[in-house]
Predict the structure of A-type ATP synthase subunit B.
Amino acid sequence: MKEYKTVKQIAGPLVFVEKTEPVGYNELVNIVLADGSIKRGQVLDTSDDLVVVQCFETTAGIGRDAGVRFLGETIKMPVSKDMLGRILSGGGKPIDGGPEIVPEKRLDIQGAAINPYARASPADFIQTGISTIDGTNTLVRGQKLPIFSGAGLPHNDIALQIARQAKVPGSTEEFAVVFAAMGITKEEANYFMADFERTGALERAVVFLNLADDPAVERIITPRLALTTAEYLGYELGYHVLVILTDMTNYCEALRQIGAAREEVPGRRGYPGYMYTDLACIYERAGIVKGKKGSVTQIPILTMPGDDITHPIADLTGYITEGQIVVSRELHRKGIYPPINVLPSLSRLMNLGIGEGHTRDDHKKVSDQLYAGYAEGKDLRGLVAIVGKDALSERDRGFLEFADLFEGQFVRQGIDEDRSIERTLDVGWELLSTLPVEQLVRIDRDLIKKYHPLYRKGAKAEV
């Protein structure tokens, strides 16, 4: 193996090497320092006279006298069923004090693109135990449904709750969670690890933790390592895998940092112009493949800088994924957990996974009526601020009260409360029973007679 002593420049995490023979994109590199120690890196860019290597560790100590060896292979993730229950670093190394993982296979972390013709249509309901997701923005197996949050909001608690509670009701198939955290603090990492161990969720999970003081380059490979693990568990071992990626904003900041070090022409707000393609390479690795028993479902979590949903990271994510769950600062200030605002939230595949045979025949209609009632009640809050509550009609006061009840009973639930979909829909009916029956214009009369509390108690109402 040739060793090149032609290091021309070092900029941030990048090492520029001159006069090499042809090398491949993403090829692994060993950088040998003067004291004999070795740092690992990866080919980021290659041309006739210059190769750019991104170092997985700090470039401190690398000088012009360092030797560079190109290894002729790309990064591969050692995968095994024994990974379940393990906590790994952002680079895929065990950090839980356990033994090294004995791999059954070593897979390229870039993954293989799924042929669109080979994709099966998602249709199986995943119960998260959170009413605002299960009831009004349903997650379907094989979907990619991001959570849009903001700094200081409890998105990590929501992520952990989903990781603990997610299941397919009535299914005996094996279910696993791959949890990848990028750019988190040591305190957050300890919190994640303690929660997984406290609740026993770690038994069916593989956890990747990339810390804030780890190199930015490692942040780029962490989600790819996690998804490669998920694809192995899903498509080769037959597991149904839920992948939770937090925080994609830290991932995109690492992209921007590396792009600046490469002196690339920046795109929107300084982010690389290829960020859309890069994010698509991650998000599109979710799905169900025809003929394969398992599936991969994704919940990426991102914090919107300045709570700006038009920010490039949130904007591009929304183009690629199938909806979004929006965490509300207003609800958080009211002390409501989980502070999920159902009005801007959306699950584009919801209708494929609900209804008779999946959840319950009244699911879609109840969801529509709850949404309409809450939207009208929130609009009336603005009117009350101008004209006062006394100026409202009796009907309007009913919807105003409904909005408060919706937030207090449907949205609000305990951090360890695991609601079944039946309980979620029953709570919805209890709320709708506070409105006059004639106002339930989005629900069929036969469903009202079947599920409305007035009819369940044997009372008579005009329908």
User: Anything to note?
Assistant: The chain is about 35% helix and 25% strand.
